[in-house]
């Protein structure tokens, strides 16, 4: 979509939300610093800058200052460091799974504090339920869904044809996935693999990709309170064994598979089926030089995927005026028209049903049905893995997964050790 069109449609519908800004206009503008998780440069920063400019035109009493803070990991470190030094951002997009960490650090305020009118309540109730699982706890809403995702399966239709498979019928079950991947794996004369049948990345977010297997095997890794995990559940061990066995069968790359290079391996036909975020959809659409499909995760005992991605949070040490201004900005940027355009530009899932009801996204879905798969998977989706002391508990799980995938531990032993470490870390939160 052309930048001008994006800019023009973003402004449409802004006026109604701007009407409440009158009171602030007589005073000096309220400044809000806004940490956004992306490295500097690239198209995303242009969109965010454009959104901030459009919002300020509609709300002259508020000045939004986007700060590009690096990866999600770098952004939360910067936000919490700034919080401890007394100068946190007013708002930030951080992982939905950072919710417990931010609450434990007393860094954020509940969004409910700002929800006063019937319109506010309707807006807060409009987000997909699957996205609210990682946004609410203890009867309060702490995060607002913004750039959210699920994991989906991408497949190369040309590779399917070459292997004698129906290019329009992706694998539906674990057994079919293994069978298809076997047929899709290609080797050269020396026996070296030139095209893997399937590739599931295990660096960056191993726990998240692992959840496509635990979820479809009907296992949930953590409780809603974020203070207990079930890594040693037999269904979890069985899911990890399946992943390890794909590698042992020679149809999935051995060892740890890089998150960042997985889409590139797909473009370069080094892998016929990949699993990655729907947030990579625009990237795949722009770079795959072959016909490709997008589908839900193949099921075993059930369908499903974890949700993922980032939420808006409002920081506690900001002034009440800044917090109110941040709330207005968050409500504006998640408006259905803007959520629809953000989804089209990035590949993230639009966060509300109303966004999918807009003319723009309806047309886009008709022309490019792959964009609707992640939305259609939401009724089967579960919360992304998240606990108190989230980074260390997640590291225990990730270390266990990588130990099993590299063959240094059996899946059962790896999950038993990860469970013991998680129990130790979570003891004080019981």
UniProtKB/TrEMBL annotation:
Residues 418-430 have a biased composition (Basic and acidic residues). GO terms for cellular component: periplasmic space. Residues 408-430 are annotated as: Disordered. Keywords: Signal. InterPro entries: Bact_solute-bd_prot1, SBP. It comes from the Bacteria. Belongs to the bacterial solute-binding protein 1 family. This is ABC transporter substrate-binding protein. It comes from Ramlibacter albus.
């Amino acid at each position: 979509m052309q930048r001008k069109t994006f800019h023009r449609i973003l402004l449409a519908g802004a006026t109604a939300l701007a009407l409440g800004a009158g009171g602030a206009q007589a005073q000096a503008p309220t400044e809000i610093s806004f940490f956004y998780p992306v490295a500097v440069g690239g198209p995303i920063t242009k969109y965010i800058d454009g959104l901030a400019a459009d919002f300020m035109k509609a709300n002259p009493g508020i000045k939004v200052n986007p700060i590009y803070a690096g990866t999600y990991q770098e952004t939360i470190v910067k936000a919490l460091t700034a919080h401890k030094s007394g100068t946190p951002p007013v708002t930030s997009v951080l992982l939905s799974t950072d919710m417990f960490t931010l609450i434990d650090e007393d860094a954020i305020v509940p969004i409910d504090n700002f929800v006063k009118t019937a319109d506010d309540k309707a807006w807060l109730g409009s987000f997909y339920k699957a996205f609210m699982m990682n946004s609410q706890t203890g009867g309060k809403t702490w995060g607002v869904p913004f750039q959210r995702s699920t994991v989906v399966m991408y497949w190369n239709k040309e590779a399917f044809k070459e292997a004698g498979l129906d290019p329009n019928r992706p694998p539906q079950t674990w057994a079919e996935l293994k069978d298809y991947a076997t047929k899709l794996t290609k080797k050269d004369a020396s026996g070296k693999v030139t095209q893997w049948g399937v590739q599931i990345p295990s660096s960056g977010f191993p726990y998240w990709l692992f959840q496509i297997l635990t979820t479809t095997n009907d296992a949930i890794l953590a409780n809603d309170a974020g203070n207990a995990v079930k890594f040693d559940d037999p269904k979890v061990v069985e899911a990890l064994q399946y992943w390890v066995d794909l590698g042992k069968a020679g149809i999935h790359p051995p060892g740890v598979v890089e998150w960042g290079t997985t889409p590139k391996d797909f473009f370069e036909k080094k892998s016929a089926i990949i699993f990655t975020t729907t947030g990579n959809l625009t990237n795949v659409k722009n770079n795959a030089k072959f016909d490709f499909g997008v589908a839900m995760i193949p099921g075993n005992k059930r369908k499903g995927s974890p949700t993922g991605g980032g939420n808006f949070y409002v920081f506690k040490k900001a002034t009440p005026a800044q917090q109110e201004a941040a709330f207005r900005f968050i409500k504006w940027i998640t408006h259905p028209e803007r959520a629809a355009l953000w989804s089209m530009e990035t590949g993230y899932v639009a966060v509300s049903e109303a966004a999918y009801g807009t003319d723009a996204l309806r047309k886009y879905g008709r022309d490019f049905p792959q964009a609707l798969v992640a939305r259609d998977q939401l009724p089967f989706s579960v919360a992304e893995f998240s606990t108190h002391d989230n980074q260390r508990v997640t590291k225990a799980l990730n270390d266990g997964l990588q130990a099993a995938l590299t063959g240094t531990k059996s899946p059962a032993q790896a999950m038993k050790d990860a469970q013991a470490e998680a129990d130790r870390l979570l003891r004080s939160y019981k």
